[in-house]
Amino acid sequence: MKHPRIFAAQLGCAKNQVDGEHMLAELYSAGFVSTENAEKADFLLINTCGFIEDAKTESINTVLSFIEAKKPSQKLIVTGCLSGRYMEELPKEMPEVDYWLGTYEPGKILKVLGLGEKASGTENLARLNLGDYKHHAYLKVAEGCDRRCAFCAIPNIRGKQISFSIESIIQEAKELEAQGVQELTLIAQDTTFYGHDQGCKTGPSLAKLLKAVLKETNIPWIRTLYWYPEFIDDELLDLMANEPRICKYVDMPIQHASSHVLKLMRRSYNQQSLRKMLTDIRTKIPGVTLRTTVLVGFPGETQEDFEELMQLIQDVRFEHLGGFVFSPEEGTPAMKLKEEPVPEELARARLDAIQDLQEEISSEANEALIGKEVKVLIDEVAEESDYHFIGRTEGNSLDSDDIVKIVEGDANPGEFYMVKIIDAEPHELIGRIVSHA
């Protein structure tokens, strides 16, 4: 019996990547085999993103390129946020696509392909890890989001938050550990809200989940993405401060600092409470790395609002910061605001100013590490370059933060080493290996 071959293209965020891993696990369980050559595939799968305009454009262009290249005998499957968000419109615009699915639902892809009888027991499938490095994996702990931020379409696409059971998460974590994972990144739209959707204070929480992962596995690095200011408590901060296996790393997208803009954005905090929270994190977790994301150009944002954001960035000195210009998304509360939109040219100028400031802050933070020894996880061999290996400290998340370039010493990817930092740039550290960690 011939096993159908499938080629998969993965777009979007890490949460979408995990969805793609679960879909492919189901297909493999039903007899499909993977191929890295799209021309040789019987099925082509595109897992799309539809969060903001740039992501939608990339997804649509990818689908169109697959439509143009696919053979008559090949079947094209489009899944993910874009198709889920525009399920009524897209099939009419792209009839060449054979199967349209939304975001991941256990067993759905098998049923759509007519393999429903093989869909039972999908919750017990082996956990695939299709990331670039086998020593790192993402593990999604919840689906959806209860926050109704004015600019965000995620609740419309993925619904309200549903936290997965600690037992199911631990099962996945153990499977990933058995595959050699050394760094596990727990992800959700809002990890700090984990368990709160169940409405019981004695039920699960992020702190309880982390304690279970610590107890049931020996994975050396455990990281969490993303935090929301409203649901951070002392138990969580104390756990991060005292447990060496939990990376002292907080990625908390604040979006803005002006109380005026935060209210327009429907964020449930103001500048005063935000500053207190950031101070508490710095105080309770010595050596913590802070990452954030900010959004400029939101309707109603004044020059004074922008200057308040700049001042907070200057005061807090985030080690890492990403920024975006407001993108109006249909179906979001922001589309109904009466406030004047910020001209795009002005919004982009504001983002440039933030990025220039952050460049200075990141440079200072990295230069402060020169001469110090830090623990580094080696990610890969640096092929055809003037350095030997690429790695990261616990203060650098995969795919979004700085790297460590190793210019002296030998190492194995997926292992930890003590590295002496001998030079630094705004987004990279340069070091030599001192010893195995």
UniProtKB/TrEMBL annotation:
Radical SAM core domain sequence ranges: 131-364
Keyword Oxidoreductase: no
Any one GO MF annotation of this record: aspartic acid methylthiotransferase activity
Cofactor note: Binds 2 [4Fe-4S] clusters. One cluster is coordinated with 3 cysteines and an exchangeable S-adenosyl-L-methionine.
Cofactor(s) this protein requires: [4Fe-4S] cluster
Keywords noted in UniProt: 4Fe-4S, Cytoplasm, Iron, Iron-sulfur, Metal-binding, Ribonucleoprotein, Ribosomal protein, S-adenosyl-L-methionine, Transferase
Keyword Iron among UniProt keywords: yes
Xref: Gene3D superfamilies: Methylthiotransferase, N-terminal domain, Nucleic acid-binding proteins, tm_1862 like domain
Residue ranges of every copy of the TRAM domain listed in the record: 367-435
MTTase N-terminal domain boundaries: 4-121
UniProt xrefs under Pfam families: Radical_SAM (PF04055), TRAM_2 (PF18693), UPF0004 (PF00919)
Reaction equations catalysed: L-aspartate(89)-[ribosomal protein uS12]-hydrogen + (sulfur carrier)-SH + AH2 + 2 S-adenosyl-L-methionine = 3-methylsulfanyl-L-aspartate(89)-[ribosomal protein uS12]-hydrogen + (sulfur carrier)-H + 5'-deoxyadenosine + L-methionine + A + S-adenosyl-L-homocysteine + 2 H(+)
Localization per record: Cytoplasm
Binding site for [4Fe-4S] cluster 2: C145, C149, C152
EC numbers on record: 2.8.4.4
Positions of [4Fe-4S] cluster 1 binding: C13, C49, C81
Protein family per UniProt: Belongs to the methylthiotransferase family. RimO subfamily.
Function of the molecule: Catalyzes the methylthiolation of an aspartic acid residue of ribosomal protein uS12.
The name this protein goes by in its record: Ribosomal protein uS12 methylthiotransferase RimO
Gene source species: Hallerella succinigenes
Lineage: Bacteria, Pseudomonadati, Fibrobacterota, Fibrobacteria, Fibrobacterales
Gene name per UniProt: rimO
